[in-house]
Amino acid sequence: MAIESLLIINKSGGLLYQRNFIDKPPQSQAPNQPEPQQQLNSNDYLILASTLHGVFAIASQLTPKALQLSQNDIDYTIPYIPNVGMPTNGGRTGNGSTVGGGSGSSGPGSNKLGSFKGDDFFKDSFVSWNKSGLRQLCTDQFTMFIYQTMTGLKFVAISTTVMPQQKVATPSGTDKLDRYGNSSNLAIQIADNFLRKVYCLYSDYVMKDPFYSMEMPIKSDLFDKKVRAMIKNMNE
Amino acid sequence: MSRSRSSTTTQSRSLKVTGEEIWKNKTEKINTELFALTYGALVAQLFEDYDNDYSLINERLFSMGYNIGVRLIEDFLARTALPRCEDMVRTSEVISKCAFKIFLNITPHVTNWSNNKDSFSLIIEDNPLSEFVELPMNAKKQIWYSNVLCGVLKGALEMVQLDCDVWFVADILKGDPQTELKIKLNKILKDEIPIGDD
Amino acid sequence: MDPGRNYQANHPLTEQEKKQQQFRLFQESLPKVSQLAFQMLLNEIVPQAMAVENELNDLNSLEQTGDRTSAVEGERKGEGEAENIPINDLSLQEKEVSSYNTNLKIQPSHKLIMELAELEDEEKYNNILKRLRNIGFEMGKKMCEMLVFSNNPNLHFKEMDLLLIMKFICRDVWKQLYEKPIDNLKTNHRGTFYLIDYNYKPIQAFSLSEEAPAKELKMVEPFLEIPLGLIKGVLASLGYSPEEVICISSFVDKPADDRPKYGFPKGVSFHVQVNMKPK
Fold this sequence. Notes:
A: 4 helices; 9 strands; globular; B: four-stranded antiparallel sheet; Longin-like_dom_sf (chain A)
């Protein structure tokens, strides 16, 4: 899953962090082509964040009554998916120390993962805190995943993977459009795993920084680097 | 009734396991002595600064804890990803079995529930902050040595939309039989609950 | 059990190795807490030193103008500012926090640190630094006692000269606190020492811009007062009174080899000057 862009939105809808990770080359202007994609500027992203925040809230009201009543049966557990965003070991020497998982780190308990000991941030399945809010937005150009923490922070990942739209033959003979098959579930789970790791990075590099103003945009270089490294692993 | 009790015990057992597992495998550790002496140096300095005005010292410790708590909660949640607690009973278990275990390697005992289950006490044995500490005679009556813990709990709970009062009622350092901390839920900050949760 | 099975590799443990192993086991058996708790406590001390200074100044000026207790009460209840401050404005205002019947005004730590960095009153600034250094000093003294009594087979305090003491600080003290020793120790063998830590742990998560301009470095300075005090405290505990020791910190560039670029962009150098006692 290639992550194109990451946003972090605080509990009041303010944008804390936004980065694009895949450079979009300008499209050649052919006579029949639509206009080339414009990059959004920072103001646009602020508006995007607060819009998303609002849409997220509205979406939670859209759940049909019938589903709401049967809420106790829904399993919100996200299984642990190994190696999401983690560097693969062996055969990748690259530039040595650019990816934190290399052998160049110093000291005992080498802080590849900050204060998280071991080779991955977490290894067990967990329950999603996002029960009735928006989790995935599928379009034919990108897919957006949203992970919300208990403290109201939203981590939004925009991925270039497009969820396939398949026609599924049902036993009764009529074709049904099954977009929400297993592939979509898996994608959400991978995204949740990934975004929880970004949350771990946030708790390490943003919360532990006494200069960080709560609820304000994140200016930490270190956090940025770590996120980029993880995204690099995801995109390869 | 017995069925729900057994389900809570399986839940609380797995909380215990979660806490222990994270403590054992995922936490960098340092000697408690070091932690205790750092805190002791801090309190000693506060004694000197505030010229033995104990209420100010207590408040300062509480403020410190509060600022730590609002940040520490994100670490706790990222690390454990525990689901939202349905009630204070569950909250008390998460606090005593997971939170205290992961950060201080102790499991305080939960007791003294109020009738409507909105307040409880934590009995802390082996308080790592007060290892080897003895209070001077004139301080004994009024200072809550580990008041920073109250601040941490208050700040952390507030970030998960639980407005609570947290205060000490007894402390071994004062000559009481045990160290006891009380947590009382004032209200749930419903407006703050992130949409989509519940 | 065949006693031969207990031997490691092919040779029996020497007396020294046995002691080392015992010491290691002993250290591992000591009660522990999370490093995180320690780190957060340590870093919160700095903004709180600022808050204490503010409070003391307020109290002093109130004492001069009127009844102290009622003034403090009024300050605490925040007359005129007692409306509910919406929690979203955390970063802008003080938080009014109710704590068991009293209303505390708690300033968030980032605000206090900003205030400290922009403090123009030299006297106040120095007071705060002194406060932090004192805390470090107490820590250093106690740590030294702790380590002396820990029966470390590598340490022989009776035979320690100044150089060995500095090595003790670089290795054992630093390791206890920050899990790694000092990276580099330089000395002129006449009482001047430079202890260089390229990755001083408590400040690793501090975010500054890549070039780390002087103004931003100044904001980090208060955080170095505690280790300065600590070094002085250890030296005091081992016989070098604080009047004879001067401790200053400064930032150094990291060496050019390809260390992982994550972390605080600069290393820290602790310059220790000890007036050599005539022996």
